[in-house]
């Protein structure tokens, strides 16, 4: 691919585009890891938030409040530069970026999912209890299937925020699209001027985010129409 781009665009344009596209894969990998890790941690925080235990609720609320109030840039500084220097340990940029983005994603996803669970009518909980189901069976069999449909569109939409958030990881030495782009933009090479590099980077980020935005809107419209049909069916019954 490198040789093809050089043959089509020449030097340095072909080399620049190849390196930007090659670095994009690390932006995608980091986004996927952050989404999956944040989803796992966020699911646990959501469970703590909706359990009857007041202690668990307080811990979950404190976690969400703390990390939603902390800018992602600050978390990257702390995990990638601050704590390693304070503790005298070496933290790989991959590790620091993953930790920061997982925490960031989990704090927001847990809030999205908690809202979805709480949007399920309380009558569903009461009906499940009336037939002898406990908290976890009710959650698994009755509440989560309904909450899943509600949370699906905003969850997909939040993936866009994660992708854009990865662009800050370059400050701790993570070699992704932003890091390579800034390196070329600062290089004294004809054809790598900032007004050339940054529009190309913007187009790549757009290509990553726009399909997810469209998918989120499609899911929102589709699930909204399904909910309307279900309400009409219930009213008719």
Q: What's the layout of helices and strands?
A:
Blueprint: H1 2-9, H2 13-50, H3 54-69, H4 72-87, H5 93-119, H6 122-130, H7 135-165, H8 177-185, H9 194-236
Helix pairs in contact: 1-2, 2-3, 2-5, 2-8, 2-9, 3-5, 4-5, 5-7, 6-7, 7-9, 8-9
Structural overview:
This protein is mostly helical and 237 residues long. Helices cover 83% and strands 0% of the residues. The protein has helices at residues 2-9, 13-50, 54-69, 72-87, 93-119, 122-130, 135-165, 177-185, 194-236. Helix 2 (13-50) packs antiparallel against helix 3. The chain is elongated. It starts with a helix and ends with a helix. Mean pLDDT is 86; it is low at 231-237.
Based on DSSP secondary structure assignment, what is the total number of beta strands? 0
Helical proportion?
Answer: over 70%
Main beta-sheet annotation: none
Molecular shape: elongated
Helix and strand composition category: mainly alpha
Number of alpha- plus pi-helical segments: 9
Mean pLDDT: 86
Distance between the termini: 61 Å
Q: Give the SSE order as H and E letters.
A: HHHHHHHHH
Strand content: under 5%
Radius of gyration: 22 Å
Low-confidence stretches: 231-237
Oligomer: single chain
Record keyword descriptors for this entry.
about 85% helix, disordered C terminus, elongated, 9 helices
